[in-house]
């Protein structure tokens, strides 16, 4: 039998994304392994076991190996890895935190990532995000769980100029959000379709 | 659009939150030992003051944490928010 | 067409360009920079419409949003009802006509785009007049993040309407320099054509930007026509100016009657003479500017009629120009038909009006003083105070985060307005601990002339024979002094009641000119001070906002998010008909060519009962519950025992609220000693996760357990029917699918080409069935493998309708369809799912409440229509005949209602589930269901109609 093929929920949007101008680029992030980590107390032991200092400041993220560790709550993080399979990541993290009273759940397919780059990214996001994304308050390392349009999202600031933002959205909302973003970016396209 | 200060995430628009009713109404230790009337009070009865009210709120569109708040039901003003493991603030 | 009332030069219009427009079918011309109103006046046209109640001619009475007269319907470029001619910017191809009150909505979809933008600033300045510009400059120079919004097409505010000078040059030069300076600050957002229409909590202001309205048909299609700015400001400076107030007298609604300041605006801003022969009626000094400016522009000013006995020091200026000034006189009425021809003028002293004489004129200007535009302050719950000297309501308190400056605060001289704007901005910055810039100079304004005190005059006292029935207070509502007198006569005292009785202030202009007049006249009639009457409550929006603008981009396919599963494209290609389940799009059935839903569902049902069917059940809610106390938590939340579940096994469970009513149900898989996978209904996914989190966080923080949503982490495909074992066995040959090795209500992990897959023996149909769980990345591939393997057995994809029929035939309720929040597990016949061993669980204590022990509670039963034909409409009521075969007299008691109803392939007849009072005791009885006017007899049965012995689940 042939190998099982993977399909991405935003396969059908790639062409439309490619037509966007440099001021608002949208790139579909490849699938990566992600686990939801729950841990009551973060300390040296947890850092040693996980290989990363989980960020304790609300609404921040830090690089973690090949991936990232994103604060989701006072005892909750989203940990990603680009080099492990979802099962490997869950098994490794679960082994590291269970002894500390924590838990780890594979959520690799729960969300998909859209990377927005360009000078107009902040303007596009401001059409549906009520929090302040000014570089003074949303520089690299910031994150936010909030709503974008009518979809819940996690926003990660990847630059200090608010021109490089990773948007994580629940997979079932991906098509809605992709449509929403394309519509929001329309006024910045030089050759609008309609 | 009011702002509510999540004790973790800071001020966010009120639509990111869900209301959880009166705070400090614990689940009874032994429901079986309560009379029907006492149980009905727990299930159905809540205070409805004009003025300061201790309430539960959940930052449902953000960090999903529950917290408590003192809110004035006449002005809608939040006077304070506090985490579940913090004591109810003493109000004058 | 020549614009005969256009001045030879001046104004802010582009005289080099001519645009054509039509009004009431007549083609006219104007210039860019005109409003529809100024272009009509330039063409000598004052009357715009007739009034809503009396059909009286009405014209342009003001120059902007406070105009109560010039209501128009736009036809081109797109139909829009009830706009003011004074606020519609002229463009080529504009077509409009006057409107007697109500307009007409477009009957074609609006193809324009609308959007919203969130914006955060330190200081928001509303109004770009002298105060607002000064405030914005001060805030910008201090380095603050600033937004300056103004409703006009260009900045300048009152300076656009006059001849003021700043720094010894025309004031508009300073305006241009200020705008240029603001544009140089990267953190300043300056928006014209933008009306701040509402101020709300915590510095939140909504503003409507009209981005392309003025471009007409040339508007680019990919840019929003209007935008709602959702501005969150740490501090707000309200510099919204003031509205001139008329004085009420008889026949004061005749076209040609206009606010004095508006005439100056038309003259200076638009280069339009609003008439040839003018009478100016005033109670204060400001109207003298209008008289002198019009005189200089060539208008013959017949007289200035000043109600004050001592008149004004500016009398000399007028007389020097040859203008007659009548002090201690009032206008008592007008003559004319469609346009004023005469003003009736009478001496006025000590509140007494003398005999009138007529002065010929085609323009009657009126000024009764100025009302500060305190709307945004008042909306923010600021208290107003009445200033008896000005006859106006002013901000009466200091609000946190909101300062009122300039005319809006009752400062009426230019130098004062500039200084007050700067003061307002500095106060705002001070509250934010931002120091002002060292270099923050204001322009030099001429020394203000100290005005003589205005006279507060709401209305000219009735002359003999007059009853106030043509003395209009609210022109848009055709409401008069007589109406207020009637309201007061009827005993109304509160200004809010007077407003609602007379409808004054409820029209399109929301009482911008009539509100304070009503307070004054009501107070007069009641013989109480105006401050005791107060004003009605100011509510957003300040000016009308189209619903399309409020909807923004949330329409069409973005109206409500459509959630889809990983298989959505496959379903679409397979011709699925979708149904909305919450926000999910789920295939309802897959009709083959020529099939309607009934035929498709009967075919799909038959396949699942006799061969094999497959469903995309991925929308089911899934929660990973982990931790040493996971079983403890589930024991407390489910009515049955979960801690005794073995790893590898599955159990069905029901959850109740503390009131004992069912809130959700589903299966639970024990993955490990410390780990469960909880399945919820599609609609209950978020609710149940929140429910679990609520108990864990707020009641049982000591429990070592964590709950995580994995709804979209797993696609779920039930493979259902007697041949399902063959299909699963073929796709997963390494799994022993025999009943002995893989019994009902167990699960097994396996892999498919290295991809983890979980299989579970769960059945929501009563048939032998396997649920296949896989990461959605591989969903399409796995689904296809199952279809390929099932082809020999005629595997049939089925939708939610078939799923419902199959589950209803087995009497499985859908929480939220067969229940409504008043149904206990016992009512559903699920006492077997309620643990008697557990000392407590959420809802348990409520089961023993007397109301929940009532044998006449509604219980879930089956219904079989006796005619074997009628499909009972869901929601139908159920009644019963008396022993004499007659219906009881109305109101006929209702026994319950139909909750689910379908046609059954298996039973070869329709059936239903219903909640019926004391239903289980009624099994075997015949009751009746009204359907389309006839009573259909139905037999009450048990809820399980197919395979009640459960013989099929193991194949």
Textual characterization of the structure:
The complex is a heterotrimer of chains A (194), B (92) and C (955). Chain A is built from 5 helices and 10 strands; from the N terminus they run αββαβββαββαβββα. Chain A is α+β, with helices and mostly antiparallel strands. Chain A folds into 2 domains: 97 residues, 2-Layer Sandwich (Gyrase A, domain 2), CATH 3.30.1360; 74 residues, Heterotetrameric sarcosine oxidase (Alpha-Beta Plaits). Chain B is 10% helix and 35% strand. Chain B has 1 helix and 6 strands, in the order βββαβββ. In chain B, the strands form 2 sheets. Chain B has a 4-stranded antiparallel sheet, with no helix packed on it. A two-stranded antiparallel ribbon of chain B has the order 1-2. The longest helix of chain B is centred in the middle third of the chain and has 9 residues. Chain C has 22 helices and 50 strands. In chain C, strands 8, 9, 12, 13, 14, 15 and 29 form a 7-stranded mixed sheet that branches. Chain C has a 6-stranded mixed sheet with strand order 41-42-43-40-34-44. The termini of chain C are far apart. In chain C, strand 21 and strand 22 form a beta hairpin. The chains are: A alpha+beta (194), B mainly beta (92), C alpha+beta (955).
Provide a compact summary of the structure.
The complex is a heterotrimer of chains A (194), B (92) and C (955). Chain B is mainly beta.
* Beta content of chain C: 25-35%
Distance between the termini of chain C: 90 Å
Number of strands of chain B: 6
What CATH architecture of one domain in chain C would you give?
A: 2-Layer Sandwich
Overall tally of structural domains of chain B: 1
Structural class of chain B: mainly beta
Number of helices of chain B: 1
Mean pLDDT value of chain B: 95
Tally the helices of chain C.
Answer: 22
Largest sheet of chain B: 4 strands, antiparallel
Helix content of chain B: under 10%
CATH superfamily of one domain in chain C: Probable tRNA modification gtpase trme, domain 1
GO molecular function (chain C): nucleotide binding; sarcosine oxidase activity
Main location (chain C): cytoplasm
EC number (chain C): 1.5.3.24
Keywords (chain C): Cytoplasm, NAD, Nucleotide-binding, Oxidoreductase
